[in-house]
Amino acid sequence: MTGATPRTAGRHFLQIPGPSNVPDAVLRAMARPTIDHRGPEFAAMTRRILDRLRTVLRTSRPVLLFPSSGTGAWEAALVNTLSPGDRVLAFETGQFAALWRDVAARLGLEVVWIEGDWRHGIDPATVEATLAGDARRTIKAVLAVHNETSTGITSRVAAIRRAIDAAGHPALLMVDTISSLGSLDYHHEAWGVDVTIGCSQKGLMLPPGLGLNAVSDRALAASRSARLPRSYWDWTPVLEANERGFFPYTPPTNLLYGLDAALDLLLDEGLERVFARHRRLAEATRRAVAGWTLELCPLDPEEYSHSLTAVWMPDGHDADALRRVILDRFDLSLGTGLGKVKGRVFRIGHLGDLNDLMLAGTLCGVEMGLALAGVPHAAGGVGAALDYLRSSTGVPAR
Amino acid sequence: MTGATPRTAGRHFLQIPGPSNVPDAVLRAMARPTIDHRGPEFAAMTRRILDRLRTVLRTSRPVLLFPSSGTGAWEAALVNTLSPGDRVLAFETGQFAALWRDVAARLGLEVVWIEGDWRHGIDPATVEATLAGDARRTIKAVLAVHNETSTGITSRVAAIRRAIDAAGHPALLMVDTISSLGSLDYHHEAWGVDVTIGCSQKGLMLPPGLGLNAVSDRALAASRSARLPRSYWDWTPVLEANERGFFPYTPPTNLLYGLDAALDLLLDEGLERVFARHRRLAEATRRAVAGWTLELCPLDPEEYSHSLTAVWMPDGHDADALRRVILDRFDLSLGTGLGKVKGRVFRIGHLGDLNDLMLAGTLCGVEMGLALAGVPHAAGGVGAALDYLRSSTGVPAR
Amino acid sequence: MTGATPRTAGRHFLQIPGPSNVPDAVLRAMARPTIDHRGPEFAAMTRRILDRLRTVLRTSRPVLLFPSSGTGAWEAALVNTLSPGDRVLAFETGQFAALWRDVAARLGLEVVWIEGDWRHGIDPATVEATLAGDARRTIKAVLAVHNETSTGITSRVAAIRRAIDAAGHPALLMVDTISSLGSLDYHHEAWGVDVTIGCSQKGLMLPPGLGLNAVSDRALAASRSARLPRSYWDWTPVLEANERGFFPYTPPTNLLYGLDAALDLLLDEGLERVFARHRRLAEATRRAVAGWTLELCPLDPEEYSHSLTAVWMPDGHDADALRRVILDRFDLSLGTGLGKVKGRVFRIGHLGDLNDLMLAGTLCGVEMGLALAGVPHAAGGVGAALDYLRSSTGVPAR
Amino acid sequence: MTGATPRTAGRHFLQIPGPSNVPDAVLRAMARPTIDHRGPEFAAMTRRILDRLRTVLRTSRPVLLFPSSGTGAWEAALVNTLSPGDRVLAFETGQFAALWRDVAARLGLEVVWIEGDWRHGIDPATVEATLAGDARRTIKAVLAVHNETSTGITSRVAAIRRAIDAAGHPALLMVDTISSLGSLDYHHEAWGVDVTIGCSQKGLMLPPGLGLNAVSDRALAASRSARLPRSYWDWTPVLEANERGFFPYTPPTNLLYGLDAALDLLLDEGLERVFARHRRLAEATRRAVAGWTLELCPLDPEEYSHSLTAVWMPDGHDADALRRVILDRFDLSLGTGLGKVKGRVFRIGHLGDLNDLMLAGTLCGVEMGLALAGVPHAAGGVGAALDYLRSSTGVPAR
Lengths: 398, 398, 398, 398
Known about the structure:
Four copies of one chain form a homotetramer. By secondary structure, chain A is of the alpha/beta class. Chain A is built from 13 helices and 14 strands. In chain A, the strands form four sheets. The first copy, chain A, has a seven-stranded mixed β-sheet with strand order 2-10-9-8-5-3-4, sandwiched between helices. In chain A, helix 2 (about 40-55) crosses helix 9 and helix 12 runs antiparallel to helix 13. The longest helix of chain A has 21 residues, at about 270-290. The relative contact order of chain A is 0.17. At the A-B interface, helix 1, helix 3, helix 4 and helix 9 of A face helix 3, helix 4 and helix 9 of B.
């Protein structure tokens, strides 16, 4: 008998910020027999879903779904609004910002790339200065990642919009909410976002397979003159078909069943309560990190993410070695460091379908793993988190 | 009490050729908790799936999956191999051929479009003549729909390849197998296909949400110089990640669970038996149509589809009125006529997870519906089908 | 390749009158995680279920559930109301009547057994005459099977109650509704039944595992002096615990989830519509039998069951040989002949979650099987059934 | 916004010792369509299940299943082996021993009841002395609860058998393993047990609904002369039908699907590893209790249960008030104190499908709850448990 806890026993603790914990009600909904995607029952479901997605995104304008990953929704945002050679402004906040830049470049756009240290979000002052300097208005869009999944850093979207406006610049604002939508407060319309990019597998509590765009009237107007080739991602036929409750090509019916069920859960709990729950779980996680005397990846408390926490490893210690010990011994999958912070950070997801004790179990696994992997730390992380969870019940300060 | 059979009782008979009947084992597999798509369990599943897809496609070369509809897989085939302004040869065999043409045109390709009557497949002689006439070899690809879902017509892919070769033309051969893959015999490699396009929701017996490309070495070579912009659909990062069992962006894990389970079913039954079963069910369906003294949409028996049957309505009778009666009274969803044959045909799907009595129940619904809708017909369709099903057990003549 | 239709393809047609077709919504409900059976969520579910079972049984008095088969619910009825050596009156209507008699005998009761030919229901005149002749009132209970699952014969419960009353006899009336509850009209209270026995796996559209008793005040009064030993089946602690929404021992929570979902389906469709649907499907089945020139097991049209049909085989032909052919070739499980009619009858279930085309498919399987097994018959059964299903939509004459 | 963690978010932590955490693979198995319980596929499943249950029970003799709760399996053990007025010896180890006694009494047996303090298991010396004093051998059976679910106390069954043998007494030994089977090491045959009573919903990791008896040859011999009335519980027809893979009445097919899947999990992990896992989780729980400076219900370390832990509350503090706080704030259902220890103990289940972090999350919930409910304690429980879980990997000392 080896020493490891058998992997066959008990729930796998999936705490990577990627596909978050999917509620069993959503999984069971996905097992319904597939219905005719051209029939009346399907049309009613489509309308019910799109209406409620507008509520989640806080917008009165269209929301569109694609059978795709979130990556596809990035591409959809770009090809519908831009033309070959157009310039876009993007910010190195982390791995996903860099990947989105790569998508833009591969599609033939020119990216104005503002370098960053992966420990800060987008600086609104830089946005304003850069756009103010773009006298000929050659920059057509600002690409902002709301919540960097690789670093646990949340950029201030409303401030970015204010910066664009302060520069008097007409660029579209496109925002990736892949790891924030449904977990963090977000206002597509009030914040003046032109295209919001989202996907199914995080705060919406579904398995992966659905990409999402929410669009403004300005984005729709831009799509009428945009000249990047587009077919699959083209908004126009989707919007036309959605009017009648349908899609221009075969939609992923069973994922839509899951989305329908997930929206029930989110709206039954109430968005405000969902967001407050995530803020509280995030604060508990940060208390644990402080209790371990470890450092967070984000350096500015204003930018701490409430949906996931990236922890900075002490020098000379490999995050992936730690992650491996924790997976082998405790069946807990933590997120790996990506790109430039490979080996330097590990990530604890606390988005989606999560409650106090699931988080507490996760933090216990991390605390034991730190000891087993020989990572210098204090043992007080779990205790600090429990103190906080016990004494707080509602909305934390920020 | 109204006259209609209550919709809440009994199984909905979904016989549209679209999303075919999904086995309950596949649906239940999709309800498994989502695992880490960067972990070892996931990698093993990816390899197991891709290996077995190669068996289904009868190829030793790569098969790639996309989180997409089949439409996306069309686009993937084109953008990976072609450059702006390239000419492609395509054939009006029906609605899906026309839609694929539209995708090509929207992406900036020039389509040489061979008109058709929607009642015949692709004529290999036309392929040869057209290509032979293309002295400057400006045509870069031939787009062929193997099994036209809108008409129930199967084109002869091997003969098309022979025609291309007879013309000594270097064009790539791209084949849409969306409604044939896993239902009809198909040989990606032996038939010299360069890109095969498929999807999850028909013969593979899954819900929609996965697109598929199988590629030849020539197609891979073409992808190295092709200049249509591509990012989401780019084969290269997919092939690289697949080597290690992963994907370049978040894959639709729960649909892959379903595919894994569906491949178990297909290969446990045995491909030859699966194909024979569909030939037999198709022949029974055609016997029923003959018994009703109705006409098939396809006019050439060599081109009858074994995965679905499109029935031509007598003049003056609307297929959709018939379909509506049948749906209301018997909870049976037949496929609508699409595009040019709207109202002129209805379609009976007999692909995927189907057996004798499910088909028999379907044919009973059609026979009763014909009478209720006042469509001129003889009542002998069900009887003829039962005679055939009773007396035949194995592989029919063709 | 052998001739048989592969068993792995398509839905198994389970038409035995036993565990009827369970709706997928019920199956998925049963996959919910098991909750605390002493918590408030459970209590609410218990109350919701018991309230609605009273609606189905048309009674204002208690309904009790047991983790058991229907056999257990027979035993529960007897041990709660009777004492060692008590006499009960029972009628040989078929196999299940005989099995219930055996239960009574094994528990130490004396059974007055009225022999029968398995082709008629209980004769109310015999009930009256027998009870009238019991001058000393030694008979304590009349055991009646409402719908004999082995013969497809429905006895007239209201008439039996009138016969008991006409004899002025105080015996309790106990009625087995195992294959009628939820499929056939039934009135526990209006018909003066003292104990109704039911179970989960037929008209209630659940898998097996739950037994049911509905009780009258007279039955409850009898339970206070009854002296057969009882513990597991004792009504008293069940009734007490049910008051608070609980059970005296661990209840089968996941079957209760299924029952909760099945009651949704039954009451959403509406009991009257459910019963009418079954009458109509039964009539179609009988038209098929007549079309085949075969005989029904029941000889009196007043006693035809609307939940299942037993077909009498021509002399010299074995029902089980026919059933085997049909199972092997068409994956259709028909009910076997039981007890005295072993080999003489086969049974077609048409209860539970069934609609026109599921029945039509079943009848097609039988018609083909009759030919394959060399059973003398006319081929017109399916046609006759379709004629009826097509032309009738509502409630048949009776 | 109220202070409570929303109940709709995250997994309910069901830690009551009752229906333990059921693996999702078992839940999904239960959602398979119900098959014919008289067909060959069913027979193969029955044999596969019974063979493997013999492995779990470590017996070569028959194991029988009933559609029932565990309470029914108690009754089955008694009515098959005993006659009216027979004397049985039973021991007040806790609530379930008392309930079993009540069953025996209600069935007309005379119970020799050895009182206890609910903090010790059965004393083998008392067994020997009592039986030795039964000169006329009027005691026919010894009823022993292996693992008292109400107190977390495990009695030493092998020692009890030795005590019976030392007294030279022919009484049958009947053992309730309801909360030990599949979680704690148990040897039906080697320990000389005559009837083992078990059920589905604890260590077998199923929802409730199946009762179990394992029998010795002596028990079978006793059943031939036993005279308590029996029908539903009668072993004889079950054993006869099981020979052919069937049951004498309709079995709970979907629960058997679940059992089939659960046995896969148990035997894939390996019984020795399963037992070691539970010993380790139990020790961690006891370390937590010690860390809290609370007392265990069991007073003898030799009798600590490895499947659940009952914690003794400090005087003046109500266990149910604590449980309520923990349920409301953390969605964690702890077991209530039953019978004589109502309010004095709460119970932590650690049987079934459980791993380190699920237990850790549970202990975090208890630790926070103790503080919130104002129960005097030290905060070091979680820390002590984590120290143990981190440093131990295999089989603990005992």
